[in-house]
Specification:
Length: 211
């Protein structure tokens, strides 16, 4: 898909990728990951992956039943414990778990969390021409707005956590050289630690801070 001309021999030649990113048959693994940033006082979820049961153009994302919740629970992070959800951008594999299907309706998954979005990304994915093959906005974003849990930022570079909160000291989003109008890297500062999350294809990783 990403490297259509690559042969198995080409892949095996990159020995550094063996095991984690490729196998002996020359197949490349595609990882889609979310990150939980935990400093002991608040929990920030970055880019909540694909989601389950959603109509998607890619067959390996279409109406799936991934054990995402089970993995979050095993790691000690039930959905209701998340304080803040940050999106580097709004591709289907970065917003999927923002909602879950309950009684035939898509409803927010992280009911105690604020959800941060970049305004240009919202405008881009809300356009009718991008809601034909699959409607990511309708099933993964709009329900969060209806529930009053969404907070859009005006443009890249101005994604700030509101001063009245204690979730994080700051969250800055800057444009990166990838696709669409506002593909972002997010720099989150919690206590004395910081993390930069790039918004490209990279699952659940937990980053803990004790400072």
């Amino acid at each position: 898909m990403f490297f259509p001309a690559a042969t198995a021999a080409d892949v095996r030649a990159h020995t550094w990728a063996a095991g984690l990113y490729s196998n002996s048959a020359g197949h490349i693994a595609l990882r889609v990951q979310a990150f939980v940033i935990d400093d002991g006082r608040r929990r920030v979820l970055v880019d909540p992956c694909v989601g389950n049961g959603k109509d998607r153009a890619l067959p390996f994302w279409h109406r799936q039943a991934y054990p995402f919740f089970e993995r979050m629970l095993a790691a000690g992070y039930p959905p209701e414990s998340i304080d803040l959800v940050v999106h580097t951008h709004l591709h289907a594999d970065h917003v999927g778990w923002d909602t879950s299907l309950r009684d035939g309706r898509w409803v927010p998954t992280f009911t105690n969390a604020r959800h941060l979005y970049v305004g240009e990304e919202l405008e881009f994915w809300q356009a009718p021409e991008r809601r034909t093959t699959e409607d990511v906005f309708a099933d993964s974003i709009e329900p969060v707005f209806r529930a009053g849990l969404a907070e859009p930022a005006p443009r890249p570079g101005h994604l700030r956590v509101r001063p009245r909160t204690t979730y994080c000291q700051g969250s800055d989003s800057g444009r990166t050289s990838t696709s669409r109008p506002a593909a972002n890297s997010s720099a989150l500062t919690c206590s004395a630690s910081s993390l930069i999350s790039t918004g490209g294809p990279c699952g659940l990783s937990v980053v803990k801070s004790t400072t």
